[in-house]
Each structure stands twice: as C-alpha cells, then as structure tokens.
Design a protein that fits this description.
The complex is a heterodimer. By secondary structure, chain A is an all-alpha fold. Chain A has twelve helices and no strands. In chain B, the strands form two sheets. A six-stranded mixed beta sheet of chain B has the order 6-7-8-3-9-10, with helices on both faces. In chain B, strands 2-1-4-5 form a four-stranded antiparallel beta sheet, with helices on one face. In chain B, helix 4 runs parallel beside helix 5 and helix 6 packs across helix 7. The two termini of chain B are 31 Å apart. Classes of the chains: A mainly alpha, B alpha/beta.
Chain lengths: 273, 263
C-alpha cells in the first residue's frame, strides 16, 4: 500500500518550500489513511470480525469487483447524469431568478416572498407530486435535484446582486458604462465570489437530493447500490457506494473551484490558505 | 468654460442641500471649495459630474448641458474605489477600453511612471497602501484626458505626509494638460496649497458665502507670511459663514460654534 509512504512523506519536515507545496495537500490524507490502517490491523488481529464494518481491504476488493464488471461505472454514470442535468437546470433557474430579484426593489418584492415560501417546503415533500407529474423515471429525479440546487444559487445570486457596492457601480457610471458593459465589467466580476460559493453549495445539495431521488425508486445509480447493499446484507457494497459518492462529490466541487480560480485570483489568498 | 447656472438640489425627503449656486470656472483654473459639513459641497460636485442631476438650474460645460456622466469630466472620490478584480494597470486603463491596445498600454505605462508606480502595474489593488491606491485613482481619472477633473475630499483619509506628497503629485499631473480642477476639501492648508481661487460655502441650504483669490506664486511655501495671510482670511470667512447660519435659522442650529470647530 502507498499509504505508509504517504504517511512517511507527510511526516517528514519539508526542507524546501517547493516540496512543501506538494506535501501540504497530502496532510489531509493523514487522518483517514491512519484510521483505515488501524481498522485493518484490528480486524486482521481478530479484535473484530469486521462483518458489519468491513475493513479497507474488503471494501477495496468489493470496489474493484464492482468496477471490473462495469457495474460501478454504470451506477456512477447514472448518478452523475442526474446530478449534472439537475445542477444545470437548477443553476440556470437560480441565476436568472436571483438576478431578477436582486435587480430592483420592485422585482424583489414581487418574487422573493413566493420563492422563500417555496423554500420553506422540505424539498422531499415534492416527490409524490413530481412522480405524478413527471413519472417515475429520470425527469422527476432531475427536477427534484434541480429544486435542491435552485435555492442556494437563487439566494446567493440575489444576495450578491443586492450587495454589490454602489460606490463601485458609480465608478462604472463615471466611465459611462451602461447596460451590457456595466454587467460585464462591473456587476459580473463583483458577484463572482459569492456566485461560485453558491454554486458549490448548490452542488452539495444536488448530491444530497440525488440520493433522496434514488432511494425513492431507481434501478440504477449509486443510491440504488446503497439500497441493494442493505437489502442483500452487503455492508462492503454500501461503503463502496459511499466512497464513490465522496470521490465524485469532492471531484465535482474541485472542478468548480478549478474553473473559477482564474476569475477569483484577485481575492485575498491569505484567507483561503 | 464650466458654468453653474443657479444650480439647486432638493432631495426627495425635502432637504434643501444646494440653493442657487452660480459659478464660472475658467479652463485650467484650480477652484477649491471649502465649507462646514452639510453645506452641499459634495452635492455640488456630484451635480457637476452628472452622477446626480440638480433639481433647479443647470451645469454647462462648453455649451453642453451636463445631465449624465460626460467623457470630458472625471471625478476622484474620497476613497480610491479601485476595482479589486483588476490589476493596477487595468484599473488605470479602465476608461480607455475603446482605444487600441497599444495606445492604451502606452498611456497606462506613462501614467504609472508619472506617479512612480511602474513596479506596481501587475499588482492587485489590495496590495497597495492608501496613498498608492489614491495615486492610481488619480491617474485612472486623468488618462482619458478630461477637461474637468472633480475631486471630492480625495486626500482626507490619508496621513499628513502622504497628503502633502499627493498634493504635489496632483499639481505635477495637472501641469501636463492643465485641466480645470474643482476640489472639495475641509483642509484649509490644502486649499491654499492648491487653489487659484477658494470658494467658501455656508450651510442650510448650501450657498456661496465668499470667494477668495489665491494668487501666491507656486510652488507655495506653507511657512511664508503670504500663505499665513490667506489662511487667516479663509478661516475668518469660514467662521463668519457659520455664525451667520446660526442667526438665520435660530432654533435649528445649536449655540454658536467655536472658532476651530467649523467642521
């Protein structure tokens, strides 16, 4: 296992700043890897039978077994597909309505109470209705995810547009920017940090809601894998699905951060380090 | 020629901030407006800039009535108001977007050299000190070559040394193209260092109280007797402007202000 090497590398005092830059992210691996190792050792030594909490080696073999049959990829892809489309729809609706609500006091008063009222409804409550309206297949699932993504994005965009510094907007006016130029050169960059944050929050909720959607009746997806593992008494499969969720969730969040980073380089990096 | 023709401003809540200001500023003249708080200095400046429109009268620049921000009028605020997402060079070139790239870069470079910030061109605004940021704001307003530059207490947030330094920078830059400067301040010495003419305003509502010519030779020596003489005149005018206000709207203004408390 590479874990020990990782661990050793992370524990070594970094001699140069360059190596420290690559080692610092590895520090985050220290805790989970150490815990996994401890559990593996405990099971190997017979301290626990590891039946309900399978050791890493069993999870890994389940994981690779599922991957070799193509089952894992199929389920992961189904889930990604749903999250992806739900995210896109939710972000589009949230961005547009958020921008409209933030645009003026009038549009805010018109839109916001309704949307806040809808936000107060636990989103799972929509499921029966969505199933009646959109059927039991993909559409109802994607729409449920879109609803989950919508609210954080809407709130983020609306709040960001409202709180754009009027003094900065005035600079735009002094240079006679109007309409599209004002949006492109002043408003968009000004709301970008809050927008990226709301996208990440929305994506997080998207991953939550895909699970809810898949629990409520699906024959594919990582959520199905979870339910299947529970019904057939295969805890390793459940943990494997959970690990897959963690990897996909983290990776998708990282992609957003990566895509946004050139737009946010001006932000105070000290605060994020 | 910048002309204010009986400019007045009454805010929607009924507050009369400005009352019939008439004023002519010659091209290249440096006019400094000074007065206690609430005398409409900033309101007047915003009316000239076109950011706000006056409720009475009009502002005319070379025959054009100003109702919205105009390309020949630049303004510098109390805060630098740099765009945090643009590097210093891009902030300076913000008003030159419509020019060819080569020209834009050349003008930005010259401007930054003039204020000694060449090495800061690729830096983010948050990495600048207060004085540096305000210098960037000054050149940002000047690179589009405005005929009129308005300054709304631009140095009031800076320490005394930085302030004197920036006053020199401003005069230096002004000498290049000699735009008309209209500057609002509450610093009497700053007014006398910079001004060709000092306009004293009185509050409630804002009106012109007195105009003092300030034709000392440049560069001006703050320690000279002539400087001190003008300073006394300005301070005396400021005191009187407030005393009279206390008489005209008795009841509203508290007891007469002390000599040094005019701001």
């Amino acid at each position: 296992m590479t874990a020990t090497a990782e661990q050793a590398a992370a524990e070594q005092p970094a001699p140069k700043a360059r190596t420290a830059r690559y080692l610092r992210p590895a520090l985050g691996l220290l805790l989970p890897v150490a815990l996994a190792l401890l559990w593996e050792i405990a099971v190997r030594m017979g301290l626990s039978n590891g039946r309900l909490v399978p050791p890493p080696s069993v999870i890994w073999s389940t994981f690779s077994e599922l991957a070799s049959t193509g089952e894992l990829q199929q389920h992961a892809f189904a889930t990604l597909w749903r999250v992806g489309w739900g995210f896109i729809c939710g972000v589009l609706a949230g961005t547009i309505l958020g921008a409209i609500a933030g645009y003026s006091a009038l549009t805010y008063r018109l839109l916001d109470p309704t949307l806040q009222g809808l936000r107060a409804v636990p989103s799972i409550a929509w499921v029966p209705l969505f199933i009646l309206w959109f059927g039991i297949f993909e559409a109802s699932k994607m729409i449920l995810i879109a609803v989950g993504v919508f609210f954080p994005v809407y709130l983020g965009v609306m709040g960001a547009v409202i709180s754009v510094d009027r003094k900065i907007v005035e600079v735009g006016r002094v240079f006679r920017l109007s309409g599209f130029a004002m949006v492109r050169r002043i408003l968009l960059p000004a709301v970008m940090p809050a927008y990226v944050l709301s996208l990440r929050a929305g994506l997080g909720l998207g991953w939550m809601f895909v699970l809810a959607a898949e629990f409520l009746g699906a024959s594919t997806g990582l959520g199905f894998l979870l339910i299947d593992g529970q019904q057939l008494g295969k805890p390793a499969q459940i943990v494997a699905a959970i690990v897959a969720f963690a990897i996909l969730g983290k990776a998708s969040d990282w992609i957003i951060q990566l895509l946004a980073s050139p737009l946010l380089r001006w932000e105070d990096v000290v605060a994020r380090r | 020629m910048l002309v204010l023709d009986r400019v007045g401003k009454t805010y929607p809540n009924g507050v009369r901030a400005l009352d019939g200001i008439s004023l002519e500023v010659a091209p290249g003249e440096i006019l400094v407006v000074i007065g206690g708080s609430g005398c409409g200095k900033s309101t007047m400046l915003r009316a000239i800039s076109g950011l706000d429109t006056p409720t009475q009268g009009r502002v005319v620049l070379d025959g054009t009535v100003i109702t919205a921000p105009h390309e020949k009028i630049g303004i510098i605020f109390q805060e630098p108001r740099l765009l945090p997402w643009l590097r210093v060079a891009d902030n300076v070139g913000f008003g030159l977007e419509d020019r060819p790239k080569a020209e834009r870069q050349a003008r930005v470079k010259t401007a930054l050299t003039r204020v000694g910030l060449t090495d800061k061109a690729r830096v983010w605004p948050r990495e600048l000190s207060g004085g540096q940021a305000q210098r960037v704001a000054i050149v940002r307003a000047l690179v589009p070559r405005p005929q009129v530059l308005l300054l709304d207490e631009p140095f009031s947030a800076l320490d005394a040394f930085t302030r004197a330094d920036l006053q020199d920078h401003l005069l230096d830059l002004w000498a290049d193209l000699e735009p008309t400067l209209v500057m609002v301040t509450h610093d009497v010495e700053e007014a006398i260092v910079l001004a060709d003419r000092i306009m004293v305003m009185r509050p409630h509502p804002g009106r012109v109280y007195d105009e003092i010519d300030c034709d000392l030779p440049r560069p001006r020596d703050r320690q000279s007797a002539a400087f001190d003489f003008v300073k006394r005149r300005v301070l005396a005018a400021l005191d009187r402007s407030l005393d009279r206000a206390a008489v005209t709207i008795d009841g509203e203004t508290k007891a007469a202000h002390g000599g040094g408390m005019w701001w």
